[in-house]
Amino acid sequence: MTKNSVEVAVIGGGAAGIAAARKLAAHHVDCLVVEARSRLGGRAYTVQHPAGFALDMGCGWLHSADCNPWVAVATSQGRVFSKATPPWGRTTMTKVMPVEEQRAFRAAMGDLFERVAQAAATGIDRPVSDLVPADSRWTGMLNAVMSYIAGAELDRMSTIDLDRYEDTELNWRLVDGYGAMIAASAGGLATAFDSPVTRIDHSGRRIRIETARGVIEADRVIVTLPTSIIGVSDDLFRPALPHKTEAALGLPLGLDDKLFIALDNAGEFEPESRVFGRTDRAGTGNYHFRPFGRPIIECYLAGRCARELETGGDAAFFDFAVSELTGLFGADFARRLTPLQLHRWGADPFARGAYSYAVPGAAEQRAVLAAPVDDRLFFAGEATSRHDFSTAHGAFITGSEAADRVIAARRKS
Ligand SMILES: Cc1cc2nc3c(=O)[nH]c(=O)nc-3n(C[C@H](O)[C@H](O)[C@H](O)COP(=O)(O)OP(=O)(O)OC[C@H]3O[C@@H](n4cnc5c(N)ncnc54)[C@H](O)[C@@H]3O)c2cc1C
Predict the structure, then answer these.
(1) Which ligand 1 atom sits nearest the alpha carbon of residue 41?
(2) If you measure from the C-alpha of residue 338 to the centroid of ligand 1, how many angstroms do you get, rounded to a whole number?
(3) What total number of domains does the chain contain?
(4) Residues 6+ apart with CB under 8 A from 240
(5) Which atom of ligand 1 is nearest to the CA of 57?
(6) pTM for the complete prediction?
(7) N or C: which end of the chain has fewer CB within 10 A?
(8) Ligand 1 centre from 152 Cα, in Å?
(9) Residue ranges making up the domain that contains 98
(10) How does pLDDT run across 12-62, given as a tens digit for each residue?
(11) Distance CA 262, CA 298 (A)
(12) Domain of 23: which CATH number?
């Protein structure tokens, strides 16, 4: 039986909600995670493939591993890390993209980030696309790679926000999946599953949380919903919180989808190598061959390209990947490919996208979204993070900080 009265309700059981609830539980605070799905983890989602592989459909990389709080959690669970250098940090597949081209592209990326830093220092926010030289050979690929990083192309993206992102450039993975570890870390937390929240009514002495499975009352609430849900639900809060809706709209979720493909005779390819489908356009896939040495290709499709493919259903992704891969390796290559797994995050009703970016002019909206209301409503989730947005560790840190605020507010009252 789900409790219908609790001291603190945590809305959403993704990385942020789990981190918040773990901390509250450790401080013996009566709390309940209210989750729309029948599983925990949210955008941290590992699928076990029958071949024995764990496939991370959402987060896979423990970015900034030297200061990522999930590392300690994974270690305490006895998880096995892969510390191999990620494909984007290596020079691979030089037959397809010669070394000089790879170097030139890296230099163009480095240049762009320098321009971003200089432009951000002026305090005037502009779309990042303004900073790409008009005659750049790399405009298509810069857009493609930024769409893998942020889920959107450069014309959609705030320079100031992008400049604030922090990354120590140490990237690890978990052999059994980042999502599986995050979900397992929620063991023992009281959770109401299959309970999409439709309204958070904070007009009375206690907060009423209306869900598809009834009403739950709480003294305090931590909201960890994705901005894609907060931004489109005008009546989520009663009384309405228009500044939160506006903040969420300024921090939309970009789109990134992963398609896993089985590859016959994979041995001819170097483990952890990668190639782009095309280097002259934004709408192209990033193909990571033999992740963990497995006979598979992890295809990353993002931004407008992924949005368009989502309208065509699962088959459209495989067809697109096959057309790009046969363009690189010849028509016969198609026979070696079998689709394994895809998750369309844009079509997922409880995500509606992959991770947040700020539109030009909206960099300060992360702080607006994060600010508590009346010491009763608290906010967490990757989009509320100033420096670690779009990541699972950013979500963790914001969840943990929201729990600290709740604990401090309890002491005051
Ligand atoms: C394809 C992809 C690749 C990624 N790669 C990486 C990576 O390599 N490294 C990295 O660090 N991050 C990566 N991320 C991002 C990372 O997964 C997210 O930033 C992080 O998991 C977000 O956690 P969160 O708790 O903020 O949000 P969520 O995980 O979205 O949690 C919110 C929860 O709220 C629930 N919910 C939604 N609506 C309702 C409702 N109405 N009522 C109740 N509950 C509701 C959802 O089901 C979900 O469980 C990736 C994401 C995707 C999609």
Answers:
(1) 49
(2) 28
(3) 2
(4) 234
(5) 1
(6) 0.98
(7) N
(8) 17
(9) 87-170+256-342
(10) 999 999 999 999 999 999 999 999 999 999 999 999 988 889 999 999 999
(11) 9
(12) 3.50.50.60
